[in-house]
Task: inverse folding
């Protein structure tokens, strides 16, 4: 006997089709079977169980897709497991996320990719896709078995937070991967410029007496990767750009026909260097918070559709690695539960529209990975999120579901809360 | 000297930033009185009798550590000094655990030096007693700036309107950051002289004029403060060689001649003779204030400790 859900009186937002109208969706067996303004309380029931729900005029959108999440599984489960990250994701309206290969052991083999997939299917409430390490052990010395790992189901390849320094190896990896059209993600960073730094370089870091990473660290690596993508024809995802000039470089390359996409961490759209303030270790992240001009340029880029994906850059860190002098503290901030609210804050400030906010967390990343979800259309998986874009709330890290609490949003006023999340038609989160 | 009716409003001394002119003058005036006391045969007072001063040095120091010890003893406090090797922290106990442990021993004053910027502020949030920053990373070293001001005030006079040059490794210097802030509050004209690789980004915005040419920078200066070339902090090549640094930025008689003929020379120590300063200048009988700075250091630390101790809530009453 099939279960059928009818959701009506929702504001349907689908960035893929441009849909923004009041109506409803019907889904059964995990798939959307009907959608549109014609769906209402009176929509015909059929045999079997029918759940009918009034969405109260709130926003119904495709569940979010997050291309950058770290958990501690395997190797550091005290930070976060796939299960706890899944809980946090569901509460944040994220229905699919991609985990980075920086684990212990590193996800650089068919066996590990397989482990993550099975484990995620078994324990996590949301869809989790592993990535494959671009190099063995993320050491930047030997190419991993890219072809086999791609066949095993890796979403893309990346060296995570260990950017490949060897340009020769990067070039060969791109050449090789382009043979089967695999996507390579690379967070642009030049270790020689950023090693040992705490925040972005500049007058503020100098006043605090902290070592700063100059933006050139990002630009140099970015230009190298763009050049290599151009000459090899590889598909490149520039992971977490953080400056105005980086976005310009990506747009220039894209205009030339380079197969390049870019992502931005949600925190880069929300914070600037001044937020590091009183040596706040929760604000110690890679790439670092940059200048206000950079932040504004990225928000403008979002408005004109130049940014393919906004990611949470979720990186759980326990207190013993964060309650330290900032120079000794670890990098990273959690973000799964604040990804959507951070974007909705920009909507509330009228800097971007709702569709512009949702595109880089729905159909943007879905089309990069060739996923069927991330859109509201008949036949698509019923991965959905219902949220109220106007609820103001105060972020309290202790109330977040992630196992680690290192959120730079702690104490911040945010707008917009998730009310309910569905994965394949099943409710995985409901706010009481 | 009359007491101010103004009460020092801070619980800790974490930096010069956040202090105002009255705060600073109050400390300098009290420092003046302790200079007089320290020149007597009997240097003992009992304003801190019964109180415990804990010196917590995570970074090696000879002069600052002994200066605080002597200051505490002369005020009658029970002084305990702990040199905490960073290796013991690596064993798993975090910095905050260490602070909480020591806090439970109920010190009244905690003097902390740490190699990381911001570490002293972090610890000050976790303890009940008054905290003095004895140097945190490349951020601040407030008692050094205060002792420098006391030295200048006693030898040259009013700091307002003086032209003071600070030369050398500004980038890695907490002494420079604290001094620029303090000298600005007291109305001096501050000049920073350093090669570009040792000039912090945005230093023009600190309320100082930045020079790369030492001779030009020293023109008309009343006071020349030299900084130690912090070689141990350099993990890269900021400079081609010590020899080249001395050639362009080492203080010798010839460069000092560019300053005012009466200009005084200061150095926070320990000196690298022949790197940033020539021995003849360092030991100059009338123009070098370097040993006097050390003397002022004890007096100003007595002033700081007494002022903070007076401000502290009576933590003993928690037992009642």
Result:
């Amino acid at each position: 006997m099939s279960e059928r859900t009818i959701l009506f009186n929702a504001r349907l937002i689908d960035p893929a089709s441009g849909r923004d109208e009041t109506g409803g969706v019907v889904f059964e067996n995990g798939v959307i079977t009907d959608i549109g303004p014609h769906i209402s309380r009176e929509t015909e029931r059929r045999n079997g169980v029918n759940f009918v729900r009034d969405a109260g005029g709130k926003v119904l959108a495709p569940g979010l897709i997050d291309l950058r999440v770290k958990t501690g599984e395997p190797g550091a489960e005290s930070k976060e497991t796939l299960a706890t990250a899944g809980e946090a994701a569901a509460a944040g309206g994220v229905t699919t996320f991609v985990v980075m290969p920086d684990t212990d052991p590193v996800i650089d083999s068919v066996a590990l990719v397989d482990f993550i997939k099975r484990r995620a299917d078994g324990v996590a409430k949301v869809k989790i896709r592993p990535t494959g390490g671009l190099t063995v052990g993320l050491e930047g010395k030997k190419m991993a078995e890219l072809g086999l790992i791609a066949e095993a189901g890796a979403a893309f390849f990346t060296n995570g937070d260990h950017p490949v320094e060897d340009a020769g190896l990067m070039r060969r990896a791109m050449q090789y991967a382009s043979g089967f059209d695999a996507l390579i993600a690379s967070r642009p960073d030049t270790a020689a410029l950023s090693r040992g730094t705490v925040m972005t370089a500049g007058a503020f870091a100098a006043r605090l007496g902290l070592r700063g990473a100059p933006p050139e660290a990002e630009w140099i690596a970015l230009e190298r990767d763009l050049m290599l993508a151009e000459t090899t024809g590889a598909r490149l995802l520039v992971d977490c750009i953080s400056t105005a000039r980086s976005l310009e470089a990506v747009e220039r390359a894209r205009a030339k026909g380079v197969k390049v996409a870019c992502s931005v961490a949600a925190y880069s759209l929300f914070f600037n260097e001044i937020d590091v303030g009183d040596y706040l270790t929760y604000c110690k992240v890679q790439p670092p918070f940059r200048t206000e001009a950079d932040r504004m340029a990225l928000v403008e880029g979002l408005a004109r559709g130049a940014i393919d994906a906004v990611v949470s850059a979720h990186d759980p860190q326990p207190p013993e690695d964060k309650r330290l002098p900032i120079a000794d503290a670890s990098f990273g901030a959690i973000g799964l539960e604040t990804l959507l609210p951070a974007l909705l804050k920009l909507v509330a400030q009228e800097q971007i529209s709702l569709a512009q906010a949702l595109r880089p967390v729905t159909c943007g990343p879905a089309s990069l990975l060739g996923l069927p979800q991330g859109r509201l259309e008949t036949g698509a998986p019923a991965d959905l999120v219902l949220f109220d874009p106007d609820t103001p709330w105060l972020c309290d890290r202790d109330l977040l579901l992630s196992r680690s609490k290192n959120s730079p949003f702690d104490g911040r006023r945010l707008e917009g809360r998730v009310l309910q999340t569905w994965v394949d038609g099943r409710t995985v989160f409901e706010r009481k | 000297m009359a007491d101010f009716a103004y009460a020092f409003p801070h619980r800790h001394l974490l930096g010069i930033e956040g202090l105002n002119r009255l705060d600073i003058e109050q400390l300098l005036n009290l420092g003046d009185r302790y200079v007089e006391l320290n020149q007597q045969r009997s240097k003992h007072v009992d304003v801190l009798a019964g109180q415990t001063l804990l010196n917590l040095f995570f970074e090696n120091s000879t002069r600052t550590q002994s200066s605080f010890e002597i200051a505490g003893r002369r005020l009658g406090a029970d002084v305990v000094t702990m040199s905490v090797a960073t290796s013991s922290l690596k064993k798993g106990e975090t910095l905050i655990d260490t602070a909480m442990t020591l806090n439970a021993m109920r010190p009244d004053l905690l003097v902390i030096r740490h190699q990381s910027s911001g570490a002293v502020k972090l610890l000050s949030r976790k303890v009940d007693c008054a905290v003095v920053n004895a140097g945190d990373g490349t951020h601040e070293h407030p008692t050094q700036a205060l002792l420098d001001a006391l030295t200048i005030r006693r030898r040259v006079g009013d700091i307002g309107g003086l032209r003071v040059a600070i030369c050398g490794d500004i980038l890695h210097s907490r002494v420079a950051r604290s001094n620029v802030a303090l000298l600005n509050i007291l109305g001096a004209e501050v000049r920073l002289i350093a090669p570009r690789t040792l000039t912090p980004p945005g230093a023009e915005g600190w309320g100082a004029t930045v020079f790369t040419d030492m001779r030009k920078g020293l023109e008309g200066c009343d006071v020349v403060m030299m900084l130690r070339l912090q070689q141990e902090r350099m993990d890269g090549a900021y400079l081609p060689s010590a020899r080249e640094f001395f050639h362009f930025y080492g203080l010798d008689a010839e460069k000092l001649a560019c300053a005012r003929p009466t200009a005084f020379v200061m150095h926070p120590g320990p000196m690298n003779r022949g790197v940033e300063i020539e021995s003849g200048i360092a030991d100059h009988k009338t123009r070098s204030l370097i040993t006097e700075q050390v003397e002022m250091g004890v007096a100003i630390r007595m002033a700081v400790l007494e002022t903070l101790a007076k401000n502290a809530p009576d933590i003993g009453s928690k037992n009642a």
